[in-house]
């Protein structure tokens, strides 16, 4: 019988219940080894230096003060090119998936999926050459990662700002998060609003919800 080599896995999620739930699910697999479970990007970056991992499970959206999104994925891809990255998000629209793919992640799993999907994704990724994989059980609209129906006219930075707005963050909080001036973030937000033809945060939320509903029809 062939012995399956252990798969070393690191987890990043700022919610302790989610993080603990993933740890418990992975513990059911005898060849999974959790090398670290982290609540912030800085903890993850520091931890990987002393406890390397083959696969990183990374929450795409962290706390307002923490590095996340495309900035974090790009940094991980550069600093730890040997790692394969699974990005998770409750934002599972085609726009977010395209950003995640282009930032260097190898696989995307929606947080709406059960944990056994994540376990299957880890096995799948561990056996691939590293090409980007979409969860086949969910992403019928995103086989082509260039499909971005909600915000196809937005730049990557504008998309990141809109993501933060949808999470309820203020312009000041977003500016602190991305180390940009309030003026720069405000300009990116207004530019995105203009392209999407919305005039308030509430209209943006309504547009985003409508877009998700349309994807399901």
UniProtKB/TrEMBL annotation:
GO molecular function, one term: DNA binding
Assigned keywords, A-Z: DNA-binding, Phosphoprotein
Sequence ranges assigned to domain Response regulatory in this UniProt record: 8-126
Superkingdom of the organism of origin: Bacteria
GO BP terms, alphabetized: phosphorelay signal transduction system; regulation of DNA-templated transcription
Residues with 4-aspartylphosphate modification: 59
InterPro entries: CheY-like_superfamily, NreC/VraR/RcsB-like_REC, Sig_transdc_resp-reg_C-effctor, Sig_transdc_resp-reg_receiver, Tscrpt_reg_LuxR_C, WalR-like, WH-like_DNA-bd_sf
SUPFAM superfamilies according to UniProt: C-terminal effector domain of the bipartite response regulators, CheY-like
SMART domains per record: HTH_LUXR, REC
The protein's name: Response regulator transcription factor
Species annotation: Sapientia aquatica
